[in-house]
Amino acid sequence: MHYAAPDLIARVTALLPDGPLSLRDLAPLDQFHVGGLKATSKLAALAGVTAGLRVLDVGSGVGGPSRFLAAQGCQVTGVDLSADYVALSRLLAERAGLAVDYVCADALEMPFEDASFDLIWTQHASMNIADKPRLYAEFSRLLRAGGALAFHDVCAGSGDLLLPVPWARRPADSALIAPDRLRSLLEACGFQLESWHDAGDEAVAFLRAAPAVPPPLSLALLLGDGLPDMLASYLRNLQEGRVAVVEAVFRLN
Prior knowledge:
This protein has a 7-stranded mixed β-sheet with strand order 3-2-1-4-5-7-6, with helices on both faces. It starts with 7 loop residues before the first helix and ends with a strand. The longest helix has 14 residues, at 83-96. It is 38% helix and 22% strand. It has a single domain (8-107, 114-252), classed as Vaccinia Virus protein VP39 (Rossmann fold), CATH 3.40.50.150. The chain is of the alpha/beta class. α3 crosses α4. It is globular, with a radius of gyration of 17 Å. The chain has 10 helices and 7 strands.
């Protein structure tokens, strides 16, 4: 599995400071997407996040965005396919003093009742899911009428993807689609566009500012020593138009 990380919990725990953890303490590790905590905050503003919303974070990783949303007063459930990521997310939420329900499940078949959520949230997760029609149909099933889908994701551009990147070491790991195709699939599932923003410039600036040597508590714990090469390839893909980064909000009719 591309995101497998042996002894992850033990290695992360050994690096955590004593006492309660803040969102900023954890951001280098748990904001598992380009743009970091700033991108999560921006997407929340675009989506009009308010306290009390029932939120499903699909592909929640090790829980950075879900804990950010919980800190805004939302009732948050995070779903991820990796049992290790779910276990670490629970530990970090407890240390941060935030209540989030983390579930290990396949995003294509999630164990929740229809219309259970006000907001479905996903950041840098769909790039590994090939069956986009089924994924977006599942989003439509789980979202109440009038609810919102907010995503921050990578789309296909022009030309072949240069590897490795954070979400793929092999071509088979990546399942990017073009922005127009993404919009068409969502509209076919009953979603209406509310906000669409090309976040490529912010992504480039973020990657250019990445340290040559990652700090101990960072995404290198999840992706290994090859992280600098992955980020360099990601930057080049963006600069050459091979990928695009999009922030968007859709509303379910």
